[in-house]
TrEMBL record:
<feature type="active site">
    <location>
        <position position="65"/>
    </location>
</feature>
<dbReference type="Pfam" id="PF22636">
    <property type="entry name" value="FlK"/>
</dbReference>
<feature type="domain" description="Fluoroacetyl-CoA-specific thioesterase-like">
    <location>
        <begin position="23"/>
        <end position="114"/>
    </location>
</feature>
<feature type="binding site">
    <location>
        <position position="109"/>
    </location>
    <ligand>
        <name>substrate</name>
    </ligand>
</feature>
<feature type="active site">
    <location>
        <position position="39"/>
    </location>
</feature>
<dbReference type="InterPro" id="IPR025540">
    <property type="entry name" value="FlK"/>
</dbReference>
<protein>
    <submittedName>
        <fullName>Fluoroacetyl-CoA thioesterase</fullName>
    </submittedName>
</protein>
<feature type="binding site">
    <location>
        <position position="58"/>
    </location>
    <ligand>
        <name>substrate</name>
    </ligand>
</feature>
<dbReference type="InterPro" id="IPR054485">
    <property type="entry name" value="FlK-like_dom"/>
</dbReference>
<dbReference type="InterPro" id="IPR029069">
    <property type="entry name" value="HotDog_dom_sf"/>
</dbReference>
<feature type="active site">
    <location>
        <position position="31"/>
    </location>
</feature>
<feature type="binding site">
    <location>
        <position position="58"/>
    </location>
    <ligand>
        <name>CoA</name>
    </ligand>
</feature>
């Protein structure tokens, strides 16, 4: 893994009905979908720097969704690596639409070995 502070990625979506919640007469970008968008940006920031057989899983999200975005508008999240501590990777997040900043916060992911993770899931599934 060659992940380092300062690495970043931006992911952009057009807000569709599936990304929305309804408030009054308007379909607006939902907070759970904002979290999904920022996680996608964080994944994109580090994925090219992971080794074969590695991936990442989210472990912590702390965001403020501070302004609405209407269905049909564009939203983009930029995730920037701020800290790498062994397998833990921390990010700052900024989320904007074409008009203003709509959210900001922090996110944390852990780099995993996919084979070990799948074995753990299989074991957990067998116990259920």
């Amino acid at each position: 893994m060659t992940v380092k502070p300062g690495m970043s990625a931006t992911v952009e979506w057009v807000v569709e009905e599936r990304h929305c919640t309804r408030r009054g007469h308007h379909d607006i970008f939902s907070t759970p979908n904002m979290v999904h968008l920022l996680e996608d940006a964080a994944i994109e920031a580090i994925a090219p720097h992971l080794e074969e057989g590695q991936s990442s899983v989210g472990s912590k999200v702390d965001v403020v969704h501070s302004a609405p975005t209407l269905k049909g508008q564009r939203v983009r999240a930029t995730a920037t690596v701020t800290e790498v501590d062994r397998r833990r990777v921390a990010f700052t997040i900024v989320v904007e639409d074409d008009v203003e900043r709509i959210g900001a916060g922090t996110h944390e992911r852990f780099v995993i070995d996919v084979a070990k993770f799948e074995a753990r899931l299989a074991s957990k599934g067998a116990a259920a």
